[in-house]
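Re: beginner question about structure tokens

> Can someone show what the tokenized structure looks like for a real chain? I only ever see the sequence side.

Sure, here's an example I had lying around. Input first:
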Amino acid sequence: MESAELESILPGTQRQFKASTSIIYQGEAPRSGFYIKDGVIKAYTLQSTGEERIVAFFGPGDFFPIAWLFEESQTAIFYYECITNCKLVAVTRDDMKNLILRNNSAKDSLLRKIVRDQLSHLIRITALEQSRASEKILYTLYYLIYVFGKSNNNNTYFVDVKLTHATISSLVGLTRETTATEINKLKRKGVLEYSKKYYTVHKNALEKIMGEDSFSDLITDKAL
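And the corresponding structure tokens:
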């Protein structure tokens, strides 16, 4: 089932939110979860210093908070905030139950999405466990092209979300200065290009520096 088909059978109400709007707060018992029709949401936590640490990004076709929707948690585990302007569909727990019980195609589509999300989170964990800043950035770029990459058919991927150095530093747990330094090094090596906060990543060059070819067949279904 394609996203457009899924959207057509969702019973919830569509709502629009501007960038930087907080949707759900950590520890809150939400009235509903949401399906992302358009836009990008970040899930994050706050450290004791008040510093933000991004846990994951969610884009079109994703539901959140997934643990609450499937009754694995009674409250939201993270904060959820719009990175871009967003169109969301409010979805209740009962909506999710009925969708899964009554529509096998929707259930299969959701299962595939959850599998893909799990893999993206494993790539994120791999990035975070690296000891060197350069390797944290390399694996994080892989995570970004896996989640948001759009191929132009020559193994180059456009990351379809605006990313500041501060956002990437929050994603990898590095300072903004270190993040900017490592990104500039990769730019000089021909791994990436960026303009107006948008990144284009040369996947072959990225894999060559990583010394990693086991991911080479992961990104196959997105094209500009």
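Each token stands for a local structural state, so reading them left to right follows the chain. The helical segments are 3-9, 66-69, 93-102, 104-129, 133-148, 165-172, 176-188, 203-210.
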